Amino acid sequence: MSLLEFHYRNVLRMLPASYRAEREEEMVAAYLEYAGDAPDEVNPRPRWGEVLSVMGLALRVRLAGASGPPVYFAWGETVRMIALFGLALQAMLSAPSLPFLPGMSENEQFFGAAGSADRLFNIGEVLLHNLWLVAYVALARGAVRTAKTAAVLVFGWSFLVPLVSDWRAMETGYTVLSAAPVLALLLGYHRDVPPPRRSWWVALLPPAVAAAALYAVNRYLTDHLADGYTTTMETLSAWTGVHGIVVVALTAAAAAALTLGAGGPALLALAFYAIVTLLARVPDLYHFHGGVEEIWQVAAVQCWVLGGLTFILAVVGVWRLPIHRRLQERSV
Question: Less CB within 10 Å around the terminal CB: N or C of the chain?
């Protein structure tokens, strides 16, 4: 075996063993024929383009579409569900700002003085943040390329904002919540996966419900803040923050998924976001300790809910995976 062939076989180890068993020899022969004579003395190695090509092929095989092996299709569907649910969560977090945008735009303390560069920048940032809604609706309707463009643009901008403005800095938990769907979208929806086209109800109902609910809650907080119910208002506001919205959304989605008999990939995707939110929420228990007791209790309840959701969704999700069912059938 030549040194170049050795390196090619090492690169092909990124592919699943079952795939290599069928095509490794053919692929190695094609690569060696294209490379030509390369003596071992020059330490020949595969080209970077070839390595990247094998990496892309490995991802497509391991995150396969419906025509792939059941185990790889299950993992591929899980990643694609992570993308869909993650974009839905981001859309639910951003959509409620739209009804308040006209009123906020008149607030110079929030957006900056009229005609200033800071004002234009901050209003543009809020509008750009709603590209999460565009990405989610586009993905739900099957426009994968539009969804990828919008998601990458808004996520990249979210990292640049803290560098040029102190209006909002990304927390670690929010960073994971926003990075996960973008990465899953880029990896899970490849050329071997036909884009699904879901109904307009699926595309518009989650952000519409979130926008209406948070608009009503914020109006309630605004109208009653001056009445002296400070503790009640602070407790209610703990449910309207990022973590509170995610907990409520995950609880509702998990109840619907379990009731309607959703498949394993959908349940595992929900379990992924439940544990990510739990890991981001647990440090707040220490942060809120010694402060307002009611807010600490809300954070504790949210952690318990997220922990329960993670366990239930993970167990039922693995049980409902197609590969698990096939193993059960073989054991009978």
Answer: C
- What the block records as the tokens of 132 is 């999460």
Distance CA 241, CA 63 (A): 34
Residues 6+ away with beta carbon under 8 Å from 223: none
Nearest CA to 203 out of 280, 252, 272, 134 is that of 134
DSSP at 41: G
pLDDT tens-digit readout, 219-246: 766 666 555 555 555 666 677 777 888 8
Q: Which two tokens stand for residue 79?
A: 């990643």
Size of the chain in residues? 332
Instruction: Report the distance separating Cα 11 and Cα 270, nearest Å.
Output: 34
Sequence-distant (6+) residues with CB within 8 A of 151 are 87, 131, 132, 135, 181, 182, 185
**Helices 264-288 and 172-188: angle between axes, nearest 10 degrees:** 160
Say how far apart CA 167 and CA 125 lie, in whole Å. Answer: 10
Quick: pLDDT tens for 88-111: 988 888 876 665 565 555 555 555
Q: How far apart are the first and last CA of the chain?
A: 45
Nearest C-alpha neighbor of 250 from the set 132, 79, 82? 82
Q: pTM here?
A: 0.81
